[in-house]
Each structure stands twice: as C-alpha cells, then as structure tokens.
Amino acid sequence: MGGVTEAARRMVASVREGRMNRTVSIRAARVEDASRLRELGVVGWETTYAGFLRPENRRAYLNGPFWSVARLRAIIEAADCATLVAEIEGRVAGFLTLEPHPSGETELTRFYVDPSERGRGTGGELWQCALAHLRASGTQSILVNVFGDNRDGRHFYERLGFALIEETTTTVGEQTVYDVWYRMTVGEPDRL
Fold first, then answer.
1. What does DSSP assign to residue 134?
2. What is the CB neighbour count within 10 angstroms for residue 185?
3. pLDDT tens digit sequence for 83-98
4. Of the four listed, 19, 53, 155, 168, which is most buried by Cβ atoms within 10 Å?
C-alpha cells in the first residue's frame, strides 16, 4: 500500500462541510494520535460488542497486542499500511487502518467512529478517502472481518458493497463467537 497515496492526500486535504454545521476533515494519522485511536477502539468494543462478548473476554482482547498503543504507532509508521482519521473541531472522532493480509490482499483491520458521531456521515467520509487511497495504490480487493453478531457493522459493510465470503467462529478470550469475512473488489462503484 505504501502509506497514504497522493490521490488520497488530495482528498484528505479537502475539508468537507458535514451535517449539522460541523466540519469533518480526513487526514493521515500521526504517531501522536495512537492513544486516541486506542480510546476509540475501546469505546467501540464496549458499546458495540457488549451484547455478545462477555466483559472479561472484551477486556482480555483490548489489553492484548492488537489494541496496544505501540502496535497502533507501528501501523501508523509502516510503509505498507495506511491509517486515516476523521477530525471534527480538532478532535479525532474516527479512524480506520489498512494492513496487508497474508493472502496478499489488503485488510481493513480497524474502523471505529466515536459513538456520538455514528450515523452522521463520519464513517462514510473515512471510507471514501480509503477508497481513493486503495484505487490509487492499485489495490484490487479488500477484506474485512466482522463478528457475525455485530448486525450494525455487517449492515454497514454490506451497504458499502462488501460481499460475504466466509462464515466461521473465532475465540475471544475464553469465548467462541460467530465470525464472518467479507471481500470487496475495489474497482466496483461506491455505494455511499
């Protein structure tokens, strides 16, 4: 992926007027954003997965390497990854990370928006910038892994144009949960 592409940088530089008289700015993440990204991830896990993941299993995963500030900093700095943030009134309100998948495809590994900003277009703005980056970098397809019981998340990705490719289970802490994988061909028309 080679970091954020020039096409995405041009998109990132453009500030959009969002709904409700607020300004949403999408930009490449900076290392100093890592703690805020972790905060958004923790809030996302606690508000989205509480209905089907037991608290001790959520805590175990959130305290593991995937959500460590050191790991988030490494992703931000990695040349083969891209991390975009949505800023509203100078505060990071959402983010996503793109990383190489062992299959050679790109994986959308994290996509979280502050609960107070959900449903207001912030996630769509992030996604449009990510698509510009993926297309400019020549990415053919992108994968995303979602807990099967995360109905809102699944609906969001399906609306974007992702297609279900696998249903399986995974283990979080000491709990086995329903898990699904989606793929999207990047050249397909946007659906937002």
1. H
2. 12
3. 999 999 899 999 999 9
4. 53
